[in-house]
Amino acid sequence: MLAIGSDHAAFSFKEEIKTYLEEKGIQYKDFGCYSEARTDYPIYAEKVANAVASGECQQGLLCCGTGIGISLAANKVPGIRAAVCSDCYSAAMSRQHNDANILALGARVVGIDLAKSIIDTWLKAEFEGGRHAERVKLISEIEAKHLKTP
Asked: Which segments of 15-92 are extended strands (E)?
């Protein structure tokens, strides 16, 4: 199951992506937002990130105007590796080398057709492990170290 979420700036973009996911038979859970009324992206970043971190959903997809803010917020949740991708190569590498568990897209940066290609690439890519697993472990150790603040 894919957790998805967006802010108001990417609401219609997310709705188009939902239709695409349905056409492809990909199950998802929409964590909001649910309209174009102004809202704040960290709310939805946290909801999607919590769903992924808890195992409720295997992966996540977040959208805002650029993908940057929503990914920064999601990355504050322990265990999350959210990557902003604007091309298929970065999408593949974020999975293969970094084991990214959330893909972030910018509705004002990529067109819907490119977004669909990026999503397809990201969902098909698999973590390669090996030397990359050691690097992901190091990232997790940095995170754990900083969680132990007094």
From this structure: 28-30, 59-64, 82-84
- Is 97 tagged catalytic? yes
Q: Which of 8, 64, 85, 146 is catalytic?
A: 64
pLDDT in tens, 72-98: 999 999 999 999 999 999 999 999 999
Mean pLDDT over all residues of the chain?
Answer: 97
Quote the CA–CA distance of 119 and 96 in Å, as a whole number. 14
Q: Is 33 tagged catalytic? A: no
CATH of 2-147, one of 3.50.50.60, 3.40.50.970, 2.40.50.140, 3.40.1400.10: 3.40.1400.10
Taking the whole predicted model, whether its pTM rises above 0.70 is answered as: yes
Judged against a pLDDT cut of 90, whether residue 150 lies above it is answered with: no
